[in-house]
């Protein structure tokens, strides 16, 4: 009786299964991290859009009166838009006013706060 040498031993099969299982677990862990990063990127992008919209609104309000920047709506304030808390500070005087837009939004394990500064011309 001759013994066939074709095929795999049980040891080789077990080693292959272990290597495959470790690889699959690594992929699953990586995809969880990627999902978190994508979600954080979406929140960060949304917060930047909210801040940009507020600054553009302030520019429009500043330019709709003559002389510029005399509209009562061109003032400091706060608001919350789709989970993004924003505070903006508008100086009361000056020909070139440095407007600060402070936004705060949630991230995994805490909150992120960003400050955006822009100059709005108020001179004639």
Report on the structure:
By secondary structure, the chain is of the alpha+beta class. The chain has one helix at 10-63; strands at 77-81, 84-89, 96-107, 110-121. It has a four-stranded antiparallel sheet with strand order 1-2-3-4, covered by helices on one side. A hairpin with a 6-residue loop joins strand 2 and strand 3 (96-107). The longest helix has 54 residues, at 10-63. It is rod-shaped. The termini are far apart. The model has no long low-confidence stretch (mean pLDDT 91).
Rounded to the nearest angstrom, the distance between the terminal CA atoms is: 106 Å
> What is the element string, with H for helices and E for strands?
HEEEE
Strand content: 25-35%
The strand count comes to: 4
Strand order of the largest sheet: 1-2-3-4
- Number of helical runs? 1
Which helices and strands occur, and which strands form pairs?
Elements: H1 10-63, E1 77-81, E2 84-89, E3 96-107, E4 110-121
Antiparallel strand pairs: 1-2, 2-3, 3-4
